[in-house]
Design brief:
Blueprint: E1 2-6, H1 9-21, H2 29-39, H3 43-59, H4 64-68, H5 74-84, H6 87-128, H7 131-142, E2 150-155, E3 165-170, E4 175-179, H8 188-207, H9 214-224, H10 229-238, H11 245-249, H12 273-298, H13 307-324
Parallel strand pairs: 1-2, 2-4
Antiparallel strand pairs: 3-4
Bound molecules: zinc ion (ZN).
Zinc ion is lined by residues 200, 204, 234, 237.
Length: 325
C-alpha cells in the first residue's frame, strides 16, 4: 500500500470549522476553545455557525468531510459541494466559508510551514518502520480483501496543543486525516505516534473491506445485548494500534500502556458522551488485550474461533460492573 501525505488548505479549514460547530461529540472542543480565545465569537459568528451546524447534522459523518478533506483548493470544494447540496444549502455554506475565511486562513498559514516539515519527516520515517508489513497483518486479522492500494493522508492543523488524532470517515474510502502530535517540536516519539495514528486509520479502511456480512452478524449480536457497535470496533482496533500489540511488535512503542486502562472510570453516557465513548473504548481494549495478543501470535483472523464471542462477553461484563458501581 502506498501512503501519500498531503498538506492542503481545505482540510484544515473544514476541521476547524467543524470544531467550531461542535455538531457531534467527536468534534474537537479544544479547537473551539482556542478559536474563541483568539478571535472571539460574535453574535454574527454564532448565527453562521448555527446555519452550518444545521446542514452539517443533516449530512452526518462521511458526507461533507468528503467534500473538503481530499480537495486541493476551494474551487474543487465548490464543485464537490454542488453534487451533494441543494441550491439553498450551497449558498449558505458558501457564505459560511466567506465569513470565516480570513481567520481560518491565518491559522492555516501559521501552521503551514510546520505541517510541511512534518510531512517530509513522516515520508522519511514511514519507510524506516515496516508499515506495509503491519498493514498486511491487519488485513489478515480482519480477513480484509480488495482494499485500496493507495491511501491519502491529509495533514490538518490543530491550532492548540491538541494531541495526535485522525479520522477515516471520508468517502471514497482511501482518504484519512491526521492531526500531527506536537507539531512545532517533532520529537521521535511524536513521529512514532503520528505513524501509529495513520495505521489506526488505515485499519478502519481495511476493516470496511471485510468480505461478506461478518460485521452485520457481530452488530446484531451486540445490539441484542444493548451494546455499542462502534465502541466495540474501536476497542478491538486499539488493541493493535496506536498503542497495541502491533505498535509494540514493530518498535513504534516501547511500553505497554493498554493494561492500565482496566482502571478507567466510565462516566454516565448522559453526562459526557465524549468521555463515555472514550473511556468505554479504552477500558474494553484493556479487557480484551490478551485475546488479541493470542490472535496475532497465532496469525489468525478475528472471525475464526471464539475471539469475537469472548470479546462480547467481556463487554457485557464491563457494562454490568459499571451499573453496580
Ligand atoms: Zn478509530
Amino acid at each position: 500500500m502506498k501512503i501519500i501525505f498531503t498538506v492542503q488548505e481545505p482540510p484544515t479549514f473544514f476541521h476547524i470549522l467543524d470544531s467550531l460547530s461542535q455538531w457531534d461529540f467527536h468534534t474537537r472542543k479544544p479547537i473551539q476553545k482556542y478559536y474563541k480565545k483568539r478571535f472571539g465569537l460574535s453574535s454574527e459568528d454564532k448565527q453562521f455557525i448555527e446555519k452550518y451546524t444545521k446542514i452539517r447534522k443533516e449530512h452526518g459523518w462521511g458526507d461533507l468531510d468528503s467534500n473538503f478533506y481530499p480537495c486541493k483548493n476551494f474551487k474543487q470544494v465548490e464543485t464537490k459541494l454542488k453534487e451533494k447540496l441543494n441550491k439553498r444549502e450551497l449558498g449558505t455554506i458558501k457564505k459560511v466559508i466567506n465569513h470565516f475565511y480570513n481567520n481560518l486562513h491565518i491559522l492555516y498559514l501559521e501552521s503551514k510551514i510546520y505541517l510541511e516539515k512534518r510531512k517530509i519527516i513522516l515520508e522519511k520515517e514511514a519507510k524506516k518502520y515496516h508499515l506495509n508489513a503491519i498493514i498486511k497483518e491487519i488485513a489478515k486479522f480482519y480477513k480484509s480483501v480488495n482494499y485500496p492500494k493507495k491511501v491519502y493522508v491529509h495533514l490538518v492543523a490543530s491550532p492548540n496543543k491538541w494531541k495526535s488524532g485522525g479520522g477515516a470517515n471520508i468517502f471514497p474510502k482511501k482518504h484519512i486525516t491526521l492531526e500531527p502530535q506536537n507539531i512545532k517540536k517533532s520529537h521521535s516519539q511524536d513521529i512514532q505516534l503520528d505513524l501509529c495514528v495513520v495505521i489506526h486509520e488505515i485499519l478502519h479502511i481495511l476493516e470496511d473491506n471485510v468480505s461478506g456480512d461478518k460485521w452485520k452478524k457481530v452488530k446484531e449480536r451486540l445490539e441484542k445485548n444493548k451494546l455499542d457497535f462502534w465502541i466495540f470496533r474501536e476497542a478491538i482496533a486499539d488493541t493493535l494500534v496506536p498503542e497495541g500489540v502491533l505498535a509494540i511488535k514493530y518498535g513504534l512503542l516501547n511500553k505497554e500502556h493498554i493494561p492500565r486502562y482496566k482502571n478507567k472510570k466510565i462516566p454516565s453516557g448522559n453526562s459526557d458522551k465524549y468521555q463515555y465513548f472514550r473511556n468505554s473504548r479504552f477500558k474494553l481494549s484493556a479487557l480484551i488485550y490478551n485475546l488479541t495478543k493470542d490472535k496475532i501470535r497465532d496469525k489468525k483472523s478475528i472471525f475464526e474461533g471464539d475471539y469475537l464471542k469472548k470479546c462480547v462477553n467481556e463487554y457485557v461484563k464491563m457494562i454490568k460492573n459499571i451499573s453496580l458501581e
